[in-house]
Amino acid sequence: MITTYCLILMAIDFLTKNRDTFWYPCFLKFINMKNLSKLIFLFVILIVYATSCVRQNPGCEYGEYLFSLPVSFYPTDSIIKLGDTIVITSEFPDTLMGGPYEFDPRGSELFYFENVDFRNYCHLIRVDTLMKSSKERFYFIDHFEYLADPTYNLTVFSGHIDVDYVYDNHKYYLKFLIIPKYKGVYLFEFGSRLNIDDKVARDTIPALDSDCEAKIWYPRFITNNGQTYDELRNKYNPNSWEFNFAYRSDGSHCFKVVE
Question: Using one digit for the tens of pLDDT, what is the confidence trace for 23-50?
């Protein structure tokens, strides 16, 4: 359709520059006042139709995108001893495959994450003790000691931890250590503020092979390739709790600290 539109414009340009041709009087007769409105209407239709026929990349049809990111806990055991060191790492390239938030594979594309802020935060929840409210289960940060290189900007608050990725040589790196100081069953949750608050500012992520951009996107953290010890977590999460907390398997690792 775009080709037809261009040919029409070329024809008009030819006739206006070659007025001595046979077709020029016919052209003037056609564009008299009686037919001028029809001509304008025809051109408007051609422009709108030609624009709508431009092929859009399938991914552009979706407003939200989901990207899976790895997080590793070592040791991977569900039983940890007091004073043992748990190493938490995350590493991935700056080109990631993302798809619609509804997990529809038709919109999957490769996106380029250049020096992006993932707005990371971590919770440490004790799950074997009943609390008056679900919010109180976050306040066990002081049950652990935290160690990290200053480049990761690890900051410990009363109810959560902030930590940043380091972006270098087209890769993202993150590493820090936690050391338990008290016994109990804990759920460590690695997440992003982008997943809990749509108002949080986020970078626009361009696609590699099209003009599409991911303006609303969510990082999904996968722990130890999906090994999160759900059976241990579920044991201490009965539905009978008055203030039940919806524990998430994404980005979390459940473990028991013993002597």
Answer: 555 555 555 555 555 555 555 555 544 4
